[in-house]
Each structure stands twice: as structure tokens, then as C-alpha cells.
Amino acid sequence: MRMADRMSRLGTETAFEVLARARKLEAEGREIVHLEIGEPDFDTPKHVVAAAQKALADGWTHYGPAAGLPQLREAIAARVSASRGIAVTPDQVVVQPGGKPTMFYAMLALLNPGDEVVYPNPGFPIYESVTNFLGAVRKPVRFVEEKGKIRWDLNHFKSQLSDRTRLVITNSPHNPTGSVLTGDDQIELAAMLRDRDLVVLADEIYCDILYEGRHVSIASLPGMREKTIILDGFSKSYAMTGWRLGYGVMPQALAESITRLGINCHSCVSSFSQVAAVQALNGPQDDVRKMVAEFRARRDLIVAGLNKLPGVTCCMPQGAFYVFPNITGTGMGSKPLADALLQDAGVACLSGTSFGAFGEGYLRFSYANSQEKIKKALANMEKFLADGRAKRIA
Ligand code: PLP
Predict the structure, then answer these.
(1) How many Å lie between the centroid of ligand 1 and the Cα of residue 328?
(2) Other CB atoms closer than 10 Å to residue 364's CB: what's the count?
(3) With a 6 A CB cut-off, is 98 part of the ligand 1 pocket?
(4) 226 CA distance to ligand 1 centroid (A)?
(5) Which pTM does this prediction carry?
(6) 386 CA distance to ligand 1 middle (Å)
(7) Angstrom distances, CA of residue 4 to CA of 1, 9, 132, 324
(8) Which CATH code for domain 48-282?
(9) Does the beta carbon of 233 lie inside 6 Å of ligand 1?
């Protein structure tokens, strides 16, 4: 079958490929610890599941409005207004089947070939993939390790901006490093962006999984609201990855374009899921708090354990559920080490380069797995690295 030329420019997410390889090894009888996939290992809160069951029984099984059910758009507007300290109205909210469609549709709506996109690298691979797909120009910005923390390199960021920059993508808390843009970082970014004719896509999907400080959205800073799209959703905060529910908050004119793209593609998001999502936002938040507390304990466990491994150093992440250890001291490259850990140590993780070229020298572990499994993975890796097998393979 002959594909359109543009298909050769579309990338993918390596996590799913590594998961498939790990599953194959398991089918052959191997025991694998899964630290590759970026989804909470918790159940969706019971009251949200019950609300979906009731909605199905009540007949919420038909098409709904393309931009989302009014009651959900209202609940999202209220939540985002309160959490970001801005006044959001329901007509600025577009409900989507997941967090990703806001990214894809926004880029489709805004980018012409040749427009420049500034984005984090390492970063969520879809930013780079869709930039290439649309014939836009990649302007990746790297991270630096500073005083035990990984931080976005704001000097590099500045040097990547130009008069051709059309879109800036930020992501805090960040996948894959777990780093956070502080309030001061956001102020610095806003000062660089405020007077430019560009749009900011603030990917805030991990905003509820934060271990220190308060989430600051760039949209809440003077002059930024009218040029910012906030991307958020239910996948991470409420352990609802399989529900496919997310949203974008944006200026109304863009909301109309993005809704039109939705009409051309998915029509609307499943109605009973949206009815349940209102309960996720307006119901008790205890499950979210419990999940974050458990993630914090696991973060502390895995960071301490990684720092004891020969050739590995690991900064303390401030959010999300990922760690991004520096593995240059092992003498191995990221991809060969990730492959060897899967094959020889039974630990599935991702190479830093799965998130872009600047991820070389790092691995990403998702700690969305039990403390017991994390301890097992650490023990297996310790044995593998101490054996010197790593050096022999290198
Ligand atoms: N943005 C980032 C940074 C992510 O890591 C993810 C998922 O891993 C998404 C967006 C997409 O979330 P969803 O599964 O809701 O489409």
C-alpha cells in the first residue's frame, strides 16, 4: 500500500513498543518489572465508575455537542478558574477524547509549513512528531542538571525563539524528567513571550501530581491568557487513561476552530464518560490525594535506590511519576542500556532518547508500579551493573 508522503514524517511513542517486547518476554516465561508505561496503576475512583454506570443506565448513550456536554464544560471552567486563578468561561473549554487531541488539533489549527515550534527535548514525543508531520520547523530546548534538580534550560530556550516562532510548548510537571517550572521560571518565560505573535501550548496534564510548591500556569500571568492553550485531562489525575477524556482551555476563536477539527474527526466524546467526569471534578478528591502520597513514597524509594547503583546518579523530581537518572557513568549509551536491562535484568524502562536526541545519557523509569516491584527492579539492576556485564556489552 502506498502511503501519503507525510506519513514518513509521523513518529510514535516508544513506550508501547517496549511494552510489546516486554509482553513477548513474559509470554516466553520471563519475569519482567514494568517501569516503562506512563499510566497510574491505580483504579479510577469508585464514585466515578458508579456515575458512569448510572449514566449508561440513564440513557447517556447518544451523540452530544462537539465541544462537550455543557455541564462538563461548566465544571472544567470552574476547576481551571480555581486552580489557575483565572476567569475561564465554558465557551473557552473544548472537551476531547484524551489529552493528546488538544495537542494534535491545536498544532493542526495553528501551524503552517515553515513555522517554528519551540518545545522541550527530552519531551513528550508527540510534540516533535506532529511538528515534523505538519512540515513545521523543530526548535528543541534541552534540560540541565543544577543543584540536584533537572531544569529546563531557559537560556537555550531564549536562543531558540525567533520571529518565525509560531508555537511554544511547555510541559510542567514534565514528562520524562519529573521537573517543574517554578513560578519564577514561568515569569521569565512570560517576559520572553508576552510581546511576540505566537501561541503557548501549556501541557499541564500532570498538574495534580506535584510534590512541592503550588502549580503555576503561565496562563495566569499578565498578557498570557489570550495567547495560551491549557491542556489538561482526567488520565493522570484520576487514573482514567482508558476512558479517553481530556480538555483544552483556550481563547474562544481557537476553541471554535478546534471544535470544527473535532467535528471532522471524532464528532464528540462519549456522553456517559462526560457525565461521570463531572463527578470526578466535583466529587470527593481523597483518591487523588492518596495516589499522590503513594507516588511520593515510591519516588523517594526509587531515587534513593538509583543513586546507589554503580555509574548512576538521579536528581529528585518534583512532579509527575517519572525519574530520569543520568547513566553516563555506566559507560553505556541509553538505548543499549535500556535494551540490556530488559533482556538481562528483566526491567522494562525507556531510553532517554525515546524523548528526543537530548535525552542521550539518561533513562526514564515510570514509578507507576508497587514499592515491592520497584525494590525488585532496583535489586535486578544492581546485580546487572555490579556484575560488570554492562561494561562487557559496552
Ligand atoms: N501530555 C503528556 C506530557 C503526557 O505524558 C501524556 C500521556 O502520557 C499526555 C499529554 C496525553 O495524555 P492522554 O492519555 O490523556 O491523551
Answers:
(1) 28
(2) 28
(3) yes
(4) 23
(5) 0.96
(6) 35
(7) 10, 10, 14, 36
(8) 3.40.640.10
(9) yes
